[in-house]
Design brief:
The protein has 385 residues and is of the alpha+beta class. The protein contains ten helices and 18 strands. The longest helix is centred in the N-terminal third of the chain and has 20 residues, at 118-137.
Length: 385
């Protein structure tokens, strides 16, 4: 198939299949899959696995003890000695507890499909399925092996899936992340902030606040000074933010507190800023005599810097133009599993999933008419990579 009409050909193949895409989306959304509920997640995993297996794709279900099982689908587009690998990455878990469908049912109205997990990111999995079917039918399939990895715990930190994500990324020439796009124009995410969490615990010395205040070391006072110091590190221009999100300490008002703690949300747009922030945290020292600091945590996802996405985005933009689809890019503050693959040094393009709005909210939805074009874009990227 000539590259000059690659995406357009895929779009023509996929547009008539929109009703089937919606039927698949409905099936996936009705299988509620909160990341913290293994039984429910496993049920959804089974439905997705059966759906893909029915279409003749090789499906491997990777068992997990405490979280939902992971799904790996492998397709050798050419011969068994494929020259390289492409990874398509996403997650089927959601932030919604089982029973959410009762107040937030799957429905299609006004050109939008509503329901828990429609946008983030079950529509992305549906689009990938139909993209792969289009690739199967295309003349002259690519020679690279394509691996689709659907994980069960992205919304809760990717603890059980991180190793397999990094392992598959390490074998891949490029990674395409099916997280939802940004905004009504479906912007692709070419940069994401690195994300982390740090805890500062202050140990002081208890004493009676009235009878012997001089014998105490006030942990809350020390913690307040440390928070004020850390606040000065915020630099919105550079994309560095530190947010004191949780705080506790003390027992009674007439007792000088011997312990206080704060949990900080850390975000940075550049690896260098992430590293500097971690060094600054480790260098904190008490300001009140007798106080002691215990600092733990740090970044668990490095930034996805634009340089790792730039070439893939340029290709996507060119392929989109073949369909009269104007693609643009953005930087977002939240992390995804794309951060993990970028940290492995693998070219990564994020936000290739659904177009819609309302992730993690009662009005979560996808724009139905955009689904064939997004599937066609993915198919074209996989074919040309």
């Amino acid at each position: 198939m000539p590259d000059s009409n690659l995406a357009k050909t895929f779009l023509n193949m996929l547009t008539p299949r929109l009703p089937e895409m919606l039927a698949a989306l409905r099936k996936y959304v009705l299988a509620e899959s909160p990341g913290v509920e293994k039984a429910a997640a496993d049920h959804c995993c089974g439905i997705i696995a059966a759906h893909w297996r029915k279409r003749g794709f090789g499906v491997e279900r990777i068992a997990q003890k405490h979280r939902g099982d992971q799904l790996r689908i492998t397709w050798w587009a050419g011969n068994s000695r494929s020259a390289g690998q492409l990874l398509v990455l996403g997650h089927y878990d959601t932030v919604y507890a089982t029973g959410t469908l009762k107040r937030m049912p799957f429905r299609v109205a006004g050109g939008k499909a509503y329901g828990p997990g429609t946008f983030d990111m079950k529509a992305g999995i549906v689009q990938a399925l139909f993209a792969l079917e289009a690739l199967q039918r295309a003349a002259g399939p690519p020679n690279k092996r394509i691996v689709f990895l659907w994980t069960s715990d992205e919304e809760i930190g990717s603890e059980t899936s991180r190793k397999i994500i990094e392992s598959e990324a390490g074998r891949s020439d490029a990674v395409f992340v099916l997280e939802p796009s940004y905004g009504p124009r479906g912007l692709l995410k070419t940069a994401r902030k690195g994300v982390g969490e740090a805890e500062i615990i202050v140990h002081g010395r208890a004493s009676h606040a009235g009878l012997a205040p001089q014998q105490g070391v006030n942990a809350i006072h020390e913690l307040a000074r440390q928070i004020a110091r850390v606040e000065q590190w915020n630099d919105l221009r550079r994309g560095v933010t530190i947010n004191a999100g949780l705080i506790d300490g003390g027992t009674r008002t007439n007792v000088i507190p011997e312990r206080a703690r704060v949990v900080l949300d850390l975000r940075a747009l550049r690896v260098a800023d992430m590293q500097r922030l971690e060094r600054q945290l480790r260098a904190l020292r008490p300001t009140i005599k007798g106080a002691r600091l215990v600092i733990s945590g740090g970044f668990n996802r490095e930034p996805l810097e634009r340089k790792i996405s730039a070439a893939l985005f340029a290709r996507a933009k060119s392929l989109g133009a073949q369909m009269n689809l104007s693609l643009d890019e953005c930087t977002v503050g939240g992390g995804s599993d794309g951060n993990l693959t970028a940290a492995c040094g693998i070219p990564t393009l994020d936000g290739l999933g659904a177009v819609g709005d309302g992730a993690h909210s009662s009005h979560e939805h996808v724009l139905v008419k955009t689904m064939p074009a997004r599937a066609a874009l993915l198919a074209a990227l996989l074919h040309s990579s």
